[in-house]
Amino acid sequence: MSDRYLNFANTPAGRRLVGALGLPAPLPLERWVAGRNRPLEGALLIGGDGELGAAVAGFANRLTDEHFAARDDQYGLPRWTAEHGPKLKGLVFDASGLSRFEELDALRQFFQPALKNLGRCPHVVVLGRAPDTLSDPQASSVQRALEGFTRSLGKEIRRGGTVQLLHVVDPGAETGLEGALRFLLSPKSAYVSAQVLRLQPCAQQVSDWTRPLAGKTALVTGASRGIGAAIAETLARDGAEVLLLDVPQAKDALDALASRLGGRSLALDICADDAPAKLVEALPEGVDIIVHNAGITRDKTLAKMSEGLWESVIDVNLRAPQQLTEALLQAGALRDNGRVVLIASLSGIAGNVGQTNYATSKAGLIGLAQSWAPTLAERGISINAVAPGFIETGMTAAIPFTIREAGRRMNSMNQGGLPQDVAEAVAWFAQPGSGAVTGQVLRVCGQSLLGA
Ligand SMILES: NC(=O)c1ccc[n+]([C@@H]2O[C@H](COP(=O)([O-])OP(=O)(O)OC[C@H]3O[C@@H](n4cnc5c(N)ncnc54)[C@H](O)[C@@H]3O)[C@@H](O)[C@H]2O)c1
């Protein structure tokens, strides 16, 4: 569904009116376009003191042609100055070496000149250490403080910008930095902001960045339309062979998409008694990537919620993903170094009126990711949840106008996300090197005010 307000606010007359009335002024966000090679098109500035900044400088030429350091003689890169530009598209600040409260001012010193010289839709990443891995209380507190800083900067940056905090577990997790920054500094993370992620060591690496999923087989449930269809397209774009699953009623759309993507289709209700067996049968060679995207809403306040409405949502959204994953694991069909992604929801984090059933199911998915992660890690398998906020799909088009408008604007981007935004996050989690991230929740919500 098109966002008419966003379109109007970006016309000359709209810009004047929106400015005069102090209304939200959403900018069209830059998105990844198939065929693009470089994660960043524009200048990248690296700053801070620590080994992680040096590690980023080591592969910066693979991210963009224009890379700079904040100081002379740093990282062997030319120095960027506010006076001479160029405008900045990406900022990486290594805060991992900060351990005393007085050192936190380094953040202000680095970001202040840079913020006045940002290009459109800039991406910012602060690198830190996981506070719970540090024994010194002040050092741990300083690292925790970075979370407040990045979340606030996410609200201040505007211009369609994003800000994330990446905790890099020491030692060995730096090898995952390139994969993470290729996502977090590029338009692939257009609608992801104010997220805190933890990178752990991972032995797997992407060998060809133009087709990071080449040689992998991916299953996507609920793939005939909306977010599921976008996930299927994106995984296929990145080189995966896709098996698309949806209910028998959606068979025509499913078959059409599968044949366009050179994949296979499976018309199956994931709640059917024989669904686990049928799925195992459809994957005789096994599967590397499982995306549990199929989901339903059956909204009613709890006072009016029937058993049927409650059970149907728990069955589709929570029980089926658990049972299908279990069946694939038991049959040995989920390969070593596999990637499981569960599509949760902001409702599962913030709660929502009329969605006790839905929020319960989605919070349960987050619980599944967290509880399964340690066991699956023994086989190099990662499992994560992606929690979309307001995404422009048939599901959100059905929401009454005023609630829909509130949902769209109540985030730092002042707009809804697109199915592609969720799909890009899934595709990043699906990469071989993304075994560095497991048991975590990534919100794709434009830094929604809800549940923040
Ligand atoms: N659209 C949003 O803003 C939003 C926000 C947060 C979370 N989500 C989640 O993202 C996922 C996709 O949402 P969407 O907006 O694309 O919804 P959608 O309704 O357009 O698509 C859901 C798909 O799941 C399929 N499905 C439902 N029950 C099934 C079953 N029993 N077996 C097999 N397939 C089944 C449907 O046929 C449909 O193709 C859902 O899990 C949803 O809860 C969406």
UniProtKB/TrEMBL annotation:
Xref: PROSITE patterns: ADH_SHORT
Ketoreductase domain segment(s): 216-389
Record-linked InterPro entries: KR_dom, NAD(P)-bd_dom_sf, Sc_DH/Rdtase_CS, SDR_fam
SMART domains: PKS_KR
Molecular function via GO: oxidoreductase activity, acting on the CH-OH group of donors, NAD or NADP as acceptor
A Pfam family that the UniProt record links to this protein: adh_short_C2
Transmembrane segments: none
Similarity-based family: Belongs to the short-chain dehydrogenases/reductases (SDR) family.
Full protein name: 3-oxoacyl-[acyl-carrier protein] reductase
Organism: Phytopseudomonas punonensis
